[in-house]
Amino acid sequence: MTAPLIRTDDAAQEVSALGPLDVLFTAADGAQEVFSFASLPLPGIRTDLATAFRARCAVLNSVKSADSLFRSAVRFLAFLSELDQPPASVGDLAPEHMRELLYFRIESTTLTTARTVLWDVCRLLRYIHPGERLTSELRGYLALSRDASDFDAGEAWPGLPEDRRSKYAYWRHEEDPDNPLIVPFIAADGARRAFDFTPLPLPGLHVDLAAAFRAELGPAGKGVSLAVGSSLFAALQYFLTHLAEQDRPPRSVTELVPAHLDEFRSRLRLAHARKWGDRYFMLVRRLLQHVTPYEELSAVLRAFLEGIPATPAGVAPAAGSARARPGKGRASAMPDGAYEPEVAQASIPVTLAVAFTGEDGRRWESSFAELPFPAFHADFASAFAVRVGPTGTLRTKSSAGTDFGAIGRFLAFLDGLPRPPKSLGDLTVRHLERYRLHRLESTKENAVLSELSSVRRLLQEVTPSSLLSPEMRDYIRRTGHTRRRKAGKGVPGYSDREFRDLMAAARSDVVAIRDRIRKAERLLESFRTTPEALSPQERFLAEHLDTMDRTGKVPAVRTHLRQHIVEGRMDLVRRLFLTDADLAPLTLLAVGLTGRNVEAIKELPHAHRMLDERAVAVSLIKRRRAKAITRETVHWETGGNDSRQLHTSGGYYRLLHQLTARGRRYSGGQRIWSIWTGASGTKGVDWETKAAAFGHIDPYAARLGRVMRLKQWGQRHGLLDDSGNPLPIDMNRLKTTVEVRTTKAMGGHLPSASRTNTLDVSFANYLKGDPTVREWADEILTTAINEAEGNARGFQPHVLNAVQTQALAQDPEQSAAALGTTPQTLRQALGGQLDTVASSCLDIEHSPFSDGRCGVSFLTCLRCPNALITHDHLPALLTLVDTLGAARQSMDIDAWVNEHGRTWLALTRLILPQFTDAERDQAAKADPQDLGLDLLDVPKDN
Question: CA distances (Å), 569 to each of 364, 666, 778, in order?
Fold first, then answer.
């Protein structure tokens, strides 16, 4: 039937003559065309289709697309008019009409063209207004994706020609479920297909290849998309067709040889683009690796598939070289005879691959074989295995990966030297220094010092240590290598108004998330108890919710007829599950309520204990703490009722637990988090996890650094800072704000306010950098420091800089009298004969701290009036500062303050400030001395 199309040669004349059933379309490029429905059959339907066509044209850009849509409408009306009982209105249309349209078009055109007409008509019917004029059955049909709508989730219908449906007919599998040549497939959205090997050439290969195809797809195609399965089957069809055209085609898989695959790849490259040819070749190669038993393939073909070089003629293969390759659907080969463990040899590494399992459960494997400079691989692999082992200090995948990257860069540097070291014994301190200078050309100093620290710690684990030179062993055991690193500045928190606005925005989003999921749960409950009380539209939606709840699969349907199928599917999934967009407000509110680091929030476990319904006990992972205190159990108040859920830590934790419970049934894992991301997309991070769990994943299982788009979230809520600019959203600033508010609420008492960190960490990293704290706490801190300084100044040593020391030597008599000692004792002190550790003792026999000879710690010398400290002691004093700083990181803060607080204050407030900056910088370049606290705590006789 010819489409009654009016060409607008004279646009003005045609527009003036338009009737109510004529639609004027104006393309994006200005071209115009009029489409007339006036002469089409079925007046009761054509008027509604004309109105729908006019609405649909508003989103079209070209005359070609509008013309294609119009011609599909013409064919649809022509088809309906030829029925024995044509529908009188759009309210009489049913899904069966859509299906019969497809059969009708297939009789005269290709399947692809027939499906295009069907899809165009479905798009047009979605613009019928109001949609309630269509039957509920038809609305449910139109809500399906086009892949599901044309064959009703993969089913073939009566009347479809046999040659058109054999490729798609899932019913063939249902009629003959035990036929090994028909492989069933069920996609994540419910679409079903059956791949039939019967019509393919070379029947002698069918059974083995069908079994391999089934193993590659997995159980019923679980986790594999329809596109992947179809591509694999198409590649196999190409391969069998190619083999059938050979002069002597193989009669079974045992006769396949590498030449068959090479010729297949060459033919594909001639017939297709290179990338598609290589893709089909790799798919067939991967499929052949699933042939069972694997030994049916020739040895030369197995070697080709696995990339193993062929054994030269006349050379016997090594024992154990023909191991069966394990794969999906095939059991691993087992050794013959009784098991006899090999004798472990600690000095010879078994492999260059080091497996790592972090304390947070994340796993990783590093291969030193992939790094440059093979001479160091074996020893470095053994040392790295200690670093990531039970006694090592690398406890997370992130820290292990950082160290492994530093090792790789160091080996690359050594590999590029004109004369690299041949063994670890040839490695010198000069190599490390040259590496430091090399890295400083492109990297900041703090990052370079961190890399060098990783290399030194690795060298400390080399076994036996005699592999290193004595000079290197002495160097890596010294302290003070990182003295030049500057302490980071704390980040300022938000003002009270900024914090209030940010929390209100996050809380409003969380309320919306909670309400939408609870609304869907109420609908689901009604559907399962009283379905007759629901409207057809509600029942249609509830049926999909029920499927999602029971199986975890999200169907490809629309919740509104004019939606894009992707938008509709996302709208549907958000009714029961969390998505990526929900992470930002949920995480922000969790940090704001608990005051915990964002890393601790991301690691929240789902396991917990309820305490009398008033509090919840949760075991947290606290990163960057000492290994023995990585985990901490906290008790959070729940608030007692739902109205306090979004205002208390415990109440919010329980809400989060409820919101993610349904998704965790499919994503699994130990953490509380679970979101739906879809099972499609290219292979990459989380791809296999998504495919296996129908799109449900733990967003922080693979890594903590997931992008949450906080900037866009803040802009969407219109958040502004106190200057009227867009408010930067930063998790560290948010935690700082909570620390500040808690500290002020406690009246500045840090032991009471520090809930998530030690006192020094709370002040140095969160409180010190905040301007409101500096202004508010100035009086409190000044008073405390003055009191501490007053106590420390009770006894003071004699401190002389370089100029004062020279003046002292010029007049020993007067200088000795001023110091309360004799000239001989002063000469001995200046000559180093009376040195203790970081000072000289002018009178050890008369201690101001006890009666008689001094018997207190050497650390006490730094606040003793008998002590003399000169420029020569400055290197030891700087080393002592580093030693006490390291002790502060490993000791309880109260114990450290009691034991070393006054010494630290004397060093930093009284002694070091009396030397110039130039003197301190010069002393810092000297080799650091090894000062252990065990030595300092016990005085020694001269």
Answer: 34, 18, 56
Helix (H) or strand (E) segment spanning residue 924: helix 917-924
The tally of CA atoms less than 13 A away on the side-chain side of residue 574 is 18
Q: In 3D, which of 198, 258, 196, 188 has the Cα closest to residue 226?
A: 188
Which is it for the CA torsion 109, 114, 120, 125, positive or negative?
positive
For 334, list phi and psi in degrees, rounded to 5. -110, 145
**For residue 293, cis peptide bond before it (omega within 30 degrees of 0):** yes
* Environment class of 898 (CB within 10 Å of its CB; exposed 0-12, middle 13-18, buried 19+): exposed
The string of DSSP codes covering 569-594 is HHHHHTTTS-BGGGHHHHHHHHHHHH
Rounded alpha-carbon distances, angstroms, from residue 559 to 28, 128, 145, 357, 555: 29, 15, 11, 44, 11
Contact (CB, 8 A) for 810 and 780: no
Query: Tokens 């991967």 correspond to what residue?
Result: 286
CB 450 within 8 A of CB 406: yes
DSSP 238: H
Within 8 A by CB and 6+ apart from 400, the residues are: 356, 358, 364, 366, 387, 388, 394
- Classify residue 59 by its DSSP letter: T
Q: Whats the size of the chain, residue-wise?
A: 942
SS3 of residue 697 by DSSP = strand
3-state secondary structure of 582: helix
CA distance 495 to 814: 60
Alpha helices in 38-110 (DSSP H): 43-57, 63-81, 95-106
737 exposure class (CB count in 10 Å sphere: 0-12, 13-18, 19+) = buried
Helix (H) or strand (E) holding 137: helix 136-142
- Using one digit for the tens of pLDDT, what is the confidence trace for 548-583? 898 888 887 877 777 777 788 888 899 999 999 999
In the chain, the amino acid numbered 507 is R
CA-based nearest residue to 623, from 737, 492, 757: 757
Tokens 């979101």 correspond to: 675
Nearest CA among 489, 486, 483 for reference residue 920: 483
3-state secondary structure of 506: helix
For residues 744 and 892, give the distance between their C-alpha atoms in angstroms, rounded to a whole number.
Answer: 24
H or E, element range at 634: strand 631-637
pLDDT digits (tens, 9 = 90+) for 328-349: 445 555 555 555 554 443 443 4
Beta-strand pair 22-26/32-36: antiparallel
End-to-end Cα separation, the chain, in angstroms: 116
Tokens 């590029």 appear where?
A: 416
Report the pLDDT value the prediction gives residue 502, as an integer from 0 to 100: 94
* 766, 740 Cβ separation under 8 angstroms: yes
Instruction: Output the CA torsion 913→919→922→926 (10° steps).
Output: -70
Q: List, for residues 422-444, the tens digit of each pLDDT value.
A: 889 999 989 998 998 889 888 88
Asked if 238 contacts 232 with a C-beta cutoff of 8 angstroms, the reply is no
Which token pair is 532? 């007759």
